[in-house]
Structures are given as structure tokens and as C-alpha cells.
Amino acid sequence: MTRKRGRGMAAVNYPTGMNLGGDPSQALIHATTTGSFVVTLSSVDLGQGLKTVMAQICAETLGVPTDNIIIDTADTDTGPHCMGTFASRGTHRIGNAIIMAAKEARAVMLEVAAEELEVDSNDLTTDGAGTIHVKGSPQKSISIFNVALAAHFKHGKSISGRGIFLQPRSYPEPETGKMTPATCYAHACTVAEVEVDTETGEVAVLSLKSAYEVGRALNPRMVEQQIIGGAWMGISHALYETTEPYYPDRAHGPVDFNQYLMPGPGDLPEFANVVIERPAADGPFGAKGVGEMTANSPIPAIANAIFDAVGVRVDSLPITPEKVLRGIRALNA
Amino acid sequence: MTKVAVEFTLNTREQNEFVETGSTLLSALRDRLGLYGTKAGCHQGTCGACTVIIDGEPHLSCLTLAERCRGKDVTTLEGLAPAGALHPLQQAFMDGFAAQCGFCTPGMILAAKCLLDRNPDPTRDEVVDAISGNICRCTGYEPIIAAILTAAQGLRKPARKRA
Fold first, then answer.
1. Does residue B85 register a pLDDT over 90?
2. Could you give the C-alpha distances from B87 to A133, A140, B29, B77, B161, in angstroms and in order?
3. What would the pLDDT profile of A160-177 be if each residue is shown by its tens digit?
4. Is A264 within 8 Å of B142 when comparing Cβ atoms?
């Protein structure tokens, strides 16, 4: 038995969003009587952390604490339109819509505060901790709570805002096929190290080291988590997951998690990740999408590492022990 | 369908239930008692989402007959900490971003609690072994392993120890 080691790399340029008949998302914001801000969306948080990042973007733009933000991903029947959380578009599209809505709401909030403090609203600023005060004079201040109360019960003003981000439909140029299907592109590169058992064909991923250029990491811990979760999924696609393993007959397909294989906690490689930030001009606070791409570069990097280790080029996924052994046999034939 | 009486301890309280013969503990917890902290995943013992603690050991509630719990001590996620408080494992999962969609989290935490109750100072390999019956589709396991090791460290400090 021989175990051979190999190293491979792969890079990915990944578009943020995609072009259907135009790619819009809307956000509506309103203040409650007690100074919470409800952001109404039709977008969905399915674990990727959309609610957290949208609350951060809204709080930053309004100038209020993140705890004051309620992200309501209510209902596509009643909510403002969203194309959906796909194509790594959530942070970029919905984030931009929220910035637009929050700017409008902030202007009303400052107008009300200005009337209460009897100053010009241009002289006011927010401290991000729940208070609005006169620039350079923090003691001349009013709480967001009291501004919201006054807006409702004294001034009859709705502290609210509307926002939409639209990436217009792009038609290809007939001559060249050139078009603009997405907005900013994120980039990544992964180096994989593997060990291949030439007797069994089994592949162990020893390490996955990646560099990601994501515009700006609005929530660095969640970006890190996307990268590690995605890298795991990449290993799973590269080496394990298939609905039709080994046999041509569909009836032999896996029916449960004993047969539909995925790497477990004991199959993890060493992870090392670097995040590079080059803010995108059209991104919310410079952010691009870092979602789906995290599963992309690990797969070809692992395939290249296997080629480096044993000289076998497998061009279909998953790279099962059987395919590796057949490749080794063909090389020795 | 025949019903049988089952008396058991659930999250430190005496519980008396009439359950259908052949029905699972998972069904009793979720459908009868409304304790949705125990997740129903594969219903065939392969995903670990329905893990509960019975007499100190992790068990798959989808494969455990409710009537076999007579006289046993059952702990679900709801019994880990008083309402409004967090168990150190829950705190470590939250602080360490160890949940994404959250579906595997209750099973992971209870499997980890069984480990830490019998081994307060586990190695990384022992943590990996303890959660290898629990499938996670989002996190890549890395932050879950880290959170369990962090919680273990916190629990070993007497000042921060909770009941």
C-alpha cells in the first residue's frame, strides 16, 4: 500500500447576482412608536445570516443601535418584492435597497429631532448608541425613543423610507455576445493538499487554504463561517455526494444518510483562510457576495491535487475511490 | 390504537402521559408535549437531529419507543437551562457562530453535554467522536467543535459553573 500526496490549486471569479428580466429587490422601513425600526423584506434567511447583516447595514445607515432593528422577512404575498436569496445577491442587492430606504427614514428622524430640539436638522448627528445630538454639543440631545414618540403623537410624521436596488436587464450585443449579466465580481483561490491511497483509491483532504477577495467583510465572523462551511461542501461535492453512486440502475440510488455520503466531523482538513478587502464601488459599504463561491474553488483544487498525487485526471464528480483506482489501472496498463 | 400510561422524568419534572403503543419518544415530545427543541430530521436514526439525553446517555428519540421511557430520566434542549438563561454550551455555540440554519443545533448540544458530563476535559478527537452521529449541512463542523471545546473550558472553571 502506498499513500501519495499531491497539491493542487484553483481560482474562481464569481458574479454577484444574475440577470433575468432585471434584478430588483425592495426594502421598506418604518419606525415603531418606541423607536424600533422594522425593515420589511420578502428576502429569506435560511441560515446564511441575512437578518444579521441587513440589521447591521440598516443600523449603520440610520445611526441607531443594531438592537433597534427588526428584520421582518414576512411574506411574499404582502412584502415588497425581492427576486430571492440566490446568486450570492442578498448582501449586495437587499443591502443597497436598505441603505436607500434608511437614508429616507433617517432624514425624517432628524427633521423630527430638529423640531424637538429647536435646531436645524443639518446640525444634528447620531451617536449610534440611541441618541441624536447637536454636532459638537452632545449634551443638547434627544433619544431615538423620544423622537419616535414625538413623531407619532405630536408631529404626525411617519419615520419611514422606501428603497429599491435594480440591476437593469442586460441584452447581449448581437455581434459579440457581450453583456453585463451581474454586478461586481468576487474572487478566490484555493490550494488543496490530498493524500491518495493507491490500493483503495480513497482520497483524504489534508488541508484547504484559501484567499478570498470579498469587497468588504461586513461581518467578518460570518464571512469566515461561509468560507469554512462552503469548503466543507466543496469537499463533499468533490469526493462524496451523488444521487447515483457506482451503479447505473436508479433503484440503487441512496435512500438515507447511511448511503448518501457526506464528510463527517472526522473528515475535516486543516483550514486556513485569508480575507482580502477591496471595496466594490456599487456594493453596500463595499460588500460583494460571498456565498456560493465558497464551494467552487475547493472542488477543482482537490481534483488537481489528486492529479498531482497519482497522475489520474478524473473529470466527473464525485471523485470516488472506484474512479481513482480505474484511473491508476489505466495508467499502468 | 391502544394507549399505555408512561411515567417518566422530563427535564427534572415528573411527567405522566398516555402514549400510543409503538409511538416514538420523538412523537411524544413534539406532537403531544409541544417541545419543538427536539428536531425531527430523518426519522430513521441517521441524522442525529432528534438526540435527547436518557439517563445520561445520548439517544435518538426517533428510534426510542415512548413506552420504553417508563421510569427513565429524559432531558431535552428545553431542560438545559432555566427559561431566559443559556447553558454554557448554548452560550458557546452562540458566541462561536456554531449555528447557521440551526436544525442540527439541539442534537449537537445534547450530544456534547453527554460528553462533557462524563469527560470535562475532552480532546478535539473526543469531541469529533461525540458528534459523529450528528449531521450538519451548513457549518463544516469546525465552529461546532470549537464551541464545544470552549464550553468545556468554561465549565471547568468553578466560578462559572452552573447547575
1. yes
2. 40, 43, 21, 10, 10
3. 999 999 999 999 999 999
4. no
- Chain B residues in contact with A262 by the CB 8 A cut-off are 135, 137
In a domain, B44, yes or no: yes
Closest residue in B to A50 (Cα) is B100
Q: Which pLDDT score is estimated for A129?
A: 96
CA distances from A14 to A146, A189, A213, A219 (A): 45, 11, 10, 19
Answer yes or no: A193 catalytic. no
What is the dotted CATH code of the domain comprising A23-167? 3.30.365.10
Catalytic residue among A104, A195, A241, A292: A292
Sequence spans of domains, chain A: 3-16+183-332, 23-167
- Domain span at residue B99? 88-158
Considering only alpha carbons, which residue of chain A is nearest residue B126? A266
**Is the CB of A233 less than 8 angstroms away from the CB of B140?**
yes
Which of A268, A273, A292 to mutate to probe the B interface, most B CBs <10 Å?
A: A268
Q: What is the CATH number of domain A3-16+183-332?
A: 3.30.365.10
Q: Note the pLDDT of residue A19.
A: 77
Yes or no, beta carbons of A229 and B140 under 8 Å apart: yes
Co-location of B107 and B47 in the same domain? no
Tell me the pLDDT of chain A averaged across its residues: 94
For residue B163, pLDDT over 50 is answered with: no
Please name the residues between 53 and 112 in chain B that touch chain A, using a CB distance below 8 Å. 97, 99-102
Q: Which of A48, A266, A271 sits opposite B142 (nearest CB)?
A: A271
pLDDT digits 0-9 by tens, A31-46: 999 999 999 999 999 8
**B154 and B123 in one domain?**
yes
Q: Are residues B10 and B69 in the same domain?
A: yes
Which of B44, B97, B129 is nearest residue A225 as measured by Cβ atoms?
Answer: B97
The pLDDT confidence band at residue A245, using thresholds 50, 70 and 90, is: low
pLDDT, tens digit, for every residue of B2-19?
999 999 999 999 999 999
**B99 found inside a domain:** yes
Look at A230 and B46 and tell me if their CB atoms are within 8 Å: no
Same domain, B70 and B119: no
User: Looking at residue A240, what is its pLDDT?
Assistant: 94
